[in-house]
Amino acid sequence: MTRTVACLATAGLVTRAGDPDDGRRALVDLTDAGRHHLADTRRARSGWLAARLAELEPAQRATLAEAAVLLGDLAER
User: Three-class SS string for 9-77?
Assistant: First the structure.
């Protein structure tokens, strides 16, 4: 995780600061650039997924919708 955060910090996507209450921990915050990058990435992934779902047959989309409900139920247990 340290390497990942260091790369993100080098790219200007996050800032790191020491935790004033626990010197073993670091506090990580998104920068404005990081927020924009995250939003752009989410939009791109959502667009990709919407396009893939649109390619499916209606029965396939219905099956996925049913599976999503079941997975949601499992996650809540």
Answer: HHCCCEEEEEECCEEEEEEEEECHHHHHHHHHHHHHHHHHHHHHHHCCCHHHHHHHHHHHHHHHHHHHC
